[in-house]
């Protein structure tokens, strides 16, 4: 007689410990047996033969990067190089020197760098170069000083007041459209041909340039800053010092850079008209005797002082605006 066990297994009475192959088993046992039978001996591989994941450092970036994301590209101008702005002028001098050495330039029209250096040494030995340079620097410096002061004051008056804007902006825009050279006959009639006229011409050119850029920066300040200053109860002086000053400084330094250039341009004009000294006068005298080397010496002096003054203004501007992060670095 067959014994029925609680776990539904059928045992043979002759051999109680044995289980018949055709005995009924629970579903879980059948499932386990099926899963065990599905693993074949030939599919089992030793651990050394199994493929191992690649080391993270050996995987190329293109494989580790999430799909759909490209490599990060630098869009800025790059890292600054010390004295990098001298590369361009140095390249111009090298090309000039090479063209002169190869005979591509007629020395009667354009002297070579060697001739120019020799002529500059002779002028410096005579004292003519230093005397003319000092007079030109004095004229340009005074015109720049008066022009920057006048242009800044006019910009503040027109930018912070509607009355000042209505009274000042129109005439200054008209003056900006009139070249300084066109005003020379009238200024000579009023002021004569002395130093006062020369400094006035330079100052007018500088003042208009500084005014335009500073006025644009003042009127471009976000009105929300003005509303914030009003809600904080700032006085007029505090408003100018904490809002107007920082907001207009970038435009002011742009105008100052252009004003420095305008001072040298005005200096060239006034020193070639009714002048008896200065770099421009020296160049005008050399023109009458066809001395191209002396003319080029004057041009080089103008260029060196213009480049150096612009670099100085840029350095001051970077220090004053160090709180800003720009592409200039």
Would you kindly provide a written description of the structure presented here, covering whatever features stand out?
There is one protein chain. With 329 residues, this protein is mainly α. The chain is built from twelve helices and two strands, in the order ββαααααααααααα. It has helices at 27-38, 61-64, 87-101, 113-126, 128-159, 162-177, 184-191, 195-219, 223-232, 236-271, 279-288, 292-320; strands at residues 3-4, 10-11. A two-stranded antiparallel ribbon has the order 1-2. Helix 10 (236-271) packs antiparallel against helix 12 (292-320). The longest helix is centred in the last third of the chain and has 36 residues, at 236-271. The radius of gyration is 42 Å and the shape is flat. Mean pLDDT is 79; it is low at 1-11 and 18-44.
Distinctive features:
329 residues, mainly alpha, 64% helix, disordered N terminus
Rough outline: flat
Q: What amount of the residues lies in strands? A: under 5%
Figure out the total of helices: 12
Give the termini distance in whole angstroms.
100 Å
Strands across the major sheet, in which order? 1-2
Low-confidence stretches: 1-11, 18-44
Computed Rg: 42 Å
Helix % is: 55-70%
**How many β-strand stretches?**
2
């Amino acid at each position: 007689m067959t014994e029925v066990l609680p776990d539904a297994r059928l045992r043979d009475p002759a051999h109680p410990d044995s289980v018949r192959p055709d005995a009924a088993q629970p579903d879980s046992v059948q499932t386990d047996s099926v899963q065990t039978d599905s693993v074949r001996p030939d599919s089992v591989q030793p651990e050394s033969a199994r493929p191992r994941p690649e080391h993270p450092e050996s995987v190329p970036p293109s494989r580790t990067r999430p799909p759909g994301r490209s490599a990060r590209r630098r869009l800025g101008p790059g890292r600054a190089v010390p004295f990098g702005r001298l590369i361009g002028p140095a390249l111009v001098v090298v090309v000039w020197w090479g063209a002169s050495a190869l005979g591509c330039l007629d020395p009667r029209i354009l002297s070579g760098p060697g001739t120019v250096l020799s002529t500059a040494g002779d002028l410096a030995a005579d004292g003519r170069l230093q005397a003319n340079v000092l007079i030109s620097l004095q004229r340009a410096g005074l015109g720049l000083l008066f022009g920057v002061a006048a242009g800044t004051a006019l910009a503040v008056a027109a930018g912070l007041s509607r009355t000042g804007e209505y009274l000042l902006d129109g005439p200054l825009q008209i003056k900006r459209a009139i070249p300084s050279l066109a005003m020379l006959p009238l200024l000579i009639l009023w002021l004569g041909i002395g130093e006062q006229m020369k400094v006035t011409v330079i100052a007018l050119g500088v003042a208009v340039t500084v005014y335009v850029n500073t006025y644009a920066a003042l009127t471009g300040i976000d009105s929300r800053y003005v509303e914030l200053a009003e809600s904080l109860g700032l006085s007029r002086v505090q408003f100018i010092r904490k809002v107007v000053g920082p907001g207009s400084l970038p435009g002011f330094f742009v105008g100052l850079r252009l004003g420095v250039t305008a001072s040298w341009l005005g200096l060239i004009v006034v020193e070639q008209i009714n002048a008896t000294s200065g770099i421009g006068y020296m160049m005008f005298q050399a023109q009458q005797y066809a001395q191209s080397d002396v003319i080029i010496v004057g041009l080089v002096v103008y260029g060196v002082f213009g480049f150096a003054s612009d670099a100085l203004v840029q350095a001051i501007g970077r220090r004053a605006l160090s709180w800003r992060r720009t592409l200039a670095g």
